[in-house]
Amino acid sequence: MSDSKDPTAQELGLLEEEELKTRGTKFFARDLGFRHACGLKNFAGNMGCSSLVLLFLFFMFLAAFLVTILVQVFKFHSSLEQEQSRQEEIYQEVTQLKAEVDRLCRPCPWDWAFFQGNCYFFSKIQRNWHDSMTACQEVGAQLVVIKSTEEQDFLQLQTSESKHFSWMGLSDLTHEGTWQWVDGSPLQSSFMNYWDKGEPNNIREEDCVEFGSQGWNDLGCHHLRFWNCKKSATSCQREEVQ
Predict the structure, then answer these.
(1) For residues 122 and 157, what is the distance between their CA atoms, to the nearest angstrom?
(2) Rounded distance, CA 140 to CA 216, Å?
């Protein structure tokens, strides 16, 4: 038997070896493709999971945000109700206080001064003598008519303290040199010492009288001065306790 191999057998061996290599390459390529495909699937799966997590977190944040808004709205509504309730309480208290004040005995209006049974108003603005007389009449009063020394001292003190020279209800418009009050009564001779030194001097038709710093002064009626009104005080009738 010869040691040399049959050429046909050698060719068959070469063919088998080539086929095995080819199959191995195919198997390797198939395995590589499988692994590659599996890697893509895992990556896609991971991406899908991440999206779900982000979406879940987003909805959780949105829910927390909505809850916070609802809580704030509830607090605001509750605070608004409390404020309205407080305002209602204040209104009721003021109404009750006003009713109690109205029941108090006040002989004079709030912005008037009381002295010896009369009410006095001291203006904060200035007018001429005629307009001042009208202003007093509009509130049911008249320019002051002085009836006593005590009243004169009271009114003169108000003028000196405020430094507001003011009209009184005295003039000689009806007859020059004859001083008369707005209620028609004449000036008493005992009141002549209330004139300031050197007054009345009737310079330039000075027919109306004002309270000066030291006493009475005659002055032109067209000048602007503060004014004093006077009216009787309201008597208070107390309810008898039975």
Answers:
(1) 12
(2) 25
Q: Name the H helices within 104-195.
A: 129-138, 149-162
Nearest to 167 by CA among 123, 113, 233: 123
pLDDT band at 17 (very low <50, low <70, confident <90, very high): low
How far, in Å, are 152, 186, 231, 240 from residue 141 at the CA level?
18, 19, 5, 31
Domains in the chain: how many in total?
2
Same domain, 198 and 135: yes
CA distance 195 to 228: 18
Q: Which residues on adjacent β-strands are paired with residue 229?
A: 121, 143
- CA of residue 175 relative to chain centroid, distance: 56
Higher-confidence position of 65 and 129: 129
Higher-confidence position of 58 and 122: 122
Residue 53 neighbours by CB distance under 10 Å = 10
Residue 57 counted as domain residue? yes
Which residue's entry shows tokens 């001065």?
225
Residues 123 and 223 in one domain: yes
More confident residue, 173 or 159: 173
| Residue 20 structure tokens | 């095995």
Residues pairing with 143 in the sheet: 229
pTM of the model: 0.56
Q: Say which amino acid occupies 179.
A: W
- What are the tens digits of pLDDT across the range 81-131? 888 888 888 888 887 777 676 667 788 998 999 999 999 999 999 999 999
